Amino acid sequence: MPDDTTTDATAAAAAAAAAPEHYQRNEALAFAIGAAGWLVPGLGHALQKMWGRALGCFLTVGVLVLLGVGMRGNVFSSEGGDAFGMLGYVADLGTGSLYFVARALETQGSDVAHAEGDYGTRFLAAAGVLNLLAALHAYEAARGRKA
Amino acid sequence: MIAPTDFHLSHFQAMTLFALLISIAFGFLSRRRTSERVKYIIWSLFLFLLIGVGIGWAMYPFSR
Prior knowledge:
By secondary structure, chain A is mainly alpha-helical. Chain A is 73% helix and 0% strand. Chain A has helices at residues 4-39, 43-46, 51-70, 83-93, 97-105, 115-142. In chain A, α1 runs antiparallel to α6, α3 runs antiparallel to α6 and α4 (83-93) packs across α6 (115-142). Chain A starts with a helix and ends in a 5-residue tail after the last helix. In chain B, α1 packs antiparallel against α2. Chain B contains two helices and no strands. By secondary structure, chain B is an all-alpha fold. Chain B has one domain (11-58). The chains are: A mainly alpha, B mainly alpha. Chain A binds chain B through residues 52-53, 56-57, 59-61, 63-64, 66-67, 69-72, 104-108, 115-116, 119, 122-123, 126, 130, 133-134, 137, 147, and chain B through 1-9, 11, 14, 17-18, 21-22, 24-25, 27-29, 32.
């Protein structure tokens, strides 16, 4: 019959062997949660039952996008050409699925000749960056680093 | 698809709305308790507006 020290050592060795697999599974899950949070604002937090944060992210990002389009801001496309166009495209893509909603809603095109359109462009870019920040927060929370 | 209503906002209204929405998002992400969130949102909104108006005044001499 094995003594307690042998049993403990065996259990510790088994746990150490299983740790990388467990760690990888958690890491993949956290990445999936982060990606979900990027795709649909607030979903990353909702999957972790952080309802307040999920609602806050969804509403703020959604309202920023709607206001940006309503103010006739520029929704950048991949055919921007210059560096600012590409940066704007990356920022706008940060809103995930709402980028395509913004593209669909922007039927009249942008009007950046006026201050409102310029503000609208900033609203859209800020919505994207904010959603990326929220997705990163959800990813970190899923890894157990912050909550 | 139905286009959203055209919004006509002044500079100050746009800045205030932007500051409010960003402050709410920051408050919800960085604080857990409701009272802490409210305090953070109010403080962040105040600083956004103060710094925004301050920068506006600082640029005034170069506006023409």
